[in-house]
């Protein structure tokens, strides 16, 4: 999965260049229905939403029963029209591309991997490497003991093929994002198109998934194992397509046989009956308890398909304990689902809608009163954030404006007081991306929050003013590395 540090702000932004603007709001392609009409209890759905809210990290939820959306909500400042980074949930889309290419006769899953990359194969490849097949990439059973690295120094395909293969392919499960990249590279070799080009007419357009983005490797190949960004409803549509065995409005988009194979157990990966990561692995799909399967991504991006309940759940979030989200689904959502339609419960359905519309991520606070003694501007020595200077340009009961110089580019950043301010921010060569900002004063400390609304990341920065200095501390809600960065110090600029 992708190694995004998630720190404010530059390191996150450089990793998100491809995600520059919010998605266009589309017509809602999935029909809506009252929960009881589809056999789901509004009262129990409300309890389900309350339990998710208590996890303090959800960004969106959509529940689809019998092909109808019965519950949907976004934690403000997240919105329905925003694309959200899927991280490893992207893998399920990549394996779908492999299945489509196979159905068109452009490749065979029993093809050897090395035959597609003769220019990158070691001079004396091992027997295990030569026997590695596309199906081994799909099942995360390449025979490698660790995930091959990916860097800018050489092609990722070459790095993968030079990585040791100590085990016989097909016998050893290792979660391996580089193996998913190889699937993307194989599809591009076999079809002459990258994943976006190949999937757009075959999957994205028929499903009404508009303006998806997918990050690219330095070699111009879709990253495959991560990097896809789409809306919550788009995730739900993808899950519904799989639930319907590849059929969409009467057209077979994905072969039924491929879906059956991709979502069934292909590799054993554990024995803990209480863990949804120990139920086996398919073709870039995880098997789950209760007969379900899912694609998922770091920090809680889910496409959960529940065939026994004819239900799909789409979730985006920024949460560390991903099992906790699935536990809530089993504990709270399953009991809400009934085999037959339920009697109308208009008042409870109305209460559910109100609860879903009230969801929000806490803003920084309500205090806009600036303390005395704040200098006009502060300069910072060289630091990992590439922040060169800052000043409090203005402060009122409604907003606080910081004048920031990052990597030689100065801009004003407006932070809402007692609310989220939706705006665009950019640093250096990084294009503007949508964010939501909030700030408050706590004595002589300015607390700012930036929510990168197309990602899981929300970063809290505290600017503590002490005489002629300001100390900046910062922490991300989730991160692949340490959540907290080292403090940096700025000094008053003499005038």
Report the helical percentage: 10-25%
Radius of gyration: 24 Å
Indicate how many domains the architecture comprises.
2
- If you consult CATH, what is the topology of the largest domain? Beta-lactamase
Alpha carbon gap, first and last residue: 48 Å
User: What is the CATH homologous superfamily assignment of the largest domain?
Assistant: DD-peptidase/beta-lactamase superfamily
Overall 3D geometry?
globular
Number of strands: 21
CATH architecture of the largest domain: 3-Layer(aba) Sandwich
CATH class of the largest domain: Alpha Beta
SSE map:
Blueprint (H helix, E strand, L loop, with lengths): L9 H5 L27 H12 L4 E8 L2 E7 L9 E2 L4 H14 L23 H5 L2 H5 L17 H7 L14 H15 L3 H13 L5 E2 L13 E3 L1 H12 L3 E2 L2 E2 L3 H7 L23 E2 L5 E5 L3 E6 L4 E7 L4 H12 L12 H12 L20 E3 L6 E9 L3 E8 L2 E8 L4 E5 L7 E10 L2 E7 L6 E9 L2 E8 L7 E9 L3
Antiparallel strand pairs: 1-2, 1-11, 3-5, 4-5, 6-7, 8-9, 9-10, 10-11, 12-13, 12-21, 13-14, 14-15, 16-17, 17-18, 18-19, 19-20, 20-21
Task: Describe this entry's structure for a reader.
The chain is α+β, with helices and mostly antiparallel strands and 495 residues long. It folds into two domains: 25-102 and 183-357, Beta-lactamase; 378-492, Lipocalin. The chain contains twelve helices and 21 strands. A hairpin with a 2-residue loop joins strand 1 and strand 2 (68-74). The longest helix has 15 residues, at 177-191. Residues 1-28 have low confidence and may be disordered.
